[in-house]
Structures are given as C-alpha cells and as structure tokens.
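Appendix B, Record 12. Input sequence as logged:
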Amino acid sequence: MRRRLGELEQIERASASEGELRAAEWMVGQLGELGAPARIETESAHGTYWWPIGIGTLAGLAGSIAALGAGRCGRGKWGGRGLGVLLGAAGAAAIAGDFPPRKRRLRRLLPKKKTHNVVCELGDPAAARTVVLVSHHDAAHSGFVFHPGIPDLVSRTGIFRHINTSPMLMAPVIGGPLLAVLAGITGSRRLAVAAAALSAGSTAAMADIGMRNVVPGANDNGTAVIALIELARIFLEDPPDGIRVILLSTGSEESFSEGMKAFGERHFESLPRESTFFINLDTVGSPFLTVLRGEGFLKMYEYPVEALACADAVAADLGIALLPDLRIRNGTDGLEALAAGYPTVSICSCTEQMQPANYHWPNDISENVDFETVGEAIRLSEAMTRRLAAEWPAPRSWS
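Logged structural output:
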C-alpha cells in the first residue's frame, strides 16, 4: 500500500484533467495486475467549484455595492436598493444551488471537460444484493483558507470542544450575498459594508484556490484508492458469498462530486434502493477513524439509522474504536447516494481538531499518512460487506 500510494501521489490529478485520467488508468492497471477487470467510464464535468461559487460571491459584491450606493434614501423599486436585492438573491441562489447534492444548474452554462470514473465488478454478478465501495482518485487545489494553522487556532478557542460538528465553512461565502439582500431591503449601510466585505473576501478566496497548485492528495483521497485496491485483492482471494461488489473510484469529487453525480445518472436506475448499499471511503489516513453521522454544506443530511448501526456493530466486533457522533459541514461522495435514498455510510478519519489531516495542503503526502487507520478502514469495509451478505438491515430509516 505504501508503494502504491507513493506512485499515486506523484500524479498531478486535478479534477477533470489529463492527470486525473492517468490516475484512473493507473488504478485500472493495478486492479488488472490482481486479476480484477476494471473499466473507465468517461463523463462530462466542469471540474471546479471556485468558478460557480465565485460567480455567486461576485454577484453578492455587486449587490452590496448597489445597496451601499443607494444608502438609506433608496431610489425606488428598481433603483440601487432593488438592484442590491436582485443581485444578492441571484448570488445566494447560485451558491446554494451549487452545493451537492443539488442540481447545479449554473454549471450547465460553464465550460465542460471530461472526468473519469473507474468501475470494477466482483463477486456474484447474479446476486440479489449489491455493495458499492466508493473512493475518488482526483486531488484538490490548495488555498490559504486551508492553512493548517487555522484549525489549530480555532481549536485553541475551545469553541467546538463540545460540538461534534465541523464549522460551516461556507457560511461567509453565502452570507455575503444574503446580507446584500438584507441591506437592499432595509437600506442599512452597515449591512451593505458587511456584505461587501464578506463577498469580496470570499471572491478572493475562490480566486486564490483556483490559482494554487494541486496537492499530492495522499490522505485525500489516495488512502481510499489504495484501500479499494486492497479490498479487490481480498475479495478475489476470498469472495464474499451471495453478494455483488462494485468498486467505484470517481473523478471530480473535489469539484463537488461531479463524478459521483454522473455515476448516479448512469447507474442509479439499475441499482434498486432496497438491495444496494453504499460504503464510501474518504480521507482514511488521519489518526482517528470515524463513520459520519451526517454531512452537508448547508442542510445537514443524516445517515440512515440502520446503516450506521451495521457499521457500529461491525466495528465493535472487530475492536475498532470509532470517533463517535461526528458530522461535517462539507460533502463527500456518500452524500449523493444518501440523497438518492440508498442505505449509505461514509467512513472517514480526522485529527484531534475534528479535521482531516493535512487537508488540501502541500504536506498531504504518503509520509504523513497513518497507515494503521487505513488498515482499520479496510478491515471495517471488508467485514461490513461480508455482514451485509449475511444480514441485510431493515430499511425503515433509509429515506
């Protein structure tokens, strides 16, 4: 696994790029050497999130300037204040609509590239039930907002000491346009100034991310890629009885799960919700393994009770200690399957600051990966797959 991760991190694999394709081809080759036939499914993707989000924050900035220029006096319904409301609302709608698992209509107007999903099918192809194990092989751009000193600084304040939910990092991003709306409605110059400051700062942050280099992505998400390859080896040597296994590694996860959304558009119709279970692995090389209780950028999507109970029971049987009750104000590929109504769990890992180790930073290299946690994620995924072959949970809370 160390050798494989060292090879993968050398590929600069931005979302929907030639490097992402090379990473997909590398994974197909690794699986092929094991005797696991895999294919690449090419899909359409935009490949960024900083453009659609940045367009929304720019609209918020323009709206705040319009409201600020109008001041308290206003200029009629479609004057400065009205324009501030209109632009702020458009910006907020663009941002909110771009977060997974929404439809992301703005992206339909933006340039498209090709992204590449890797699909490998094992086990009994005629089995009535299917387990889909998911990783992603693209890597993220860095950015100042991902500086490792920020989580350390926040943790020292103790704000989140008793809260097992990560901070809503996108609150300032959508907050600027929303404040522009309020400034336009009320005519408040203070609100307009605050809206301008938040929108300008968020726009600058998106521009900074877009101009940064792609990180090596060893933990996020090379660790899950090598975990899937290892699971392929395990299942080839000792196939699980009576279950079909799909190993899926998506492209363009770092551009808000575009590869996973495309997989769903292509395959969800042929994967019945009552007989398909998704196990998502994302960033499993930090010190503490966890199974997320929920995730979502704005709305918190809770994972199904029965699916979580299955993961918790298997972890307890294996003696794997899971960091309890963690939710994130972010999104993994598990969110797409979850929102589509499938029983889903998302296996992740974090540091003491409740953050992925070396998140979107240049030091996300294999030397800094906790391979013991990676091993636990593999054991948990394998055992859950075998448990699901024998005991399928009741679907009361899957929706």
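The chain has twelve helices and ten strands.
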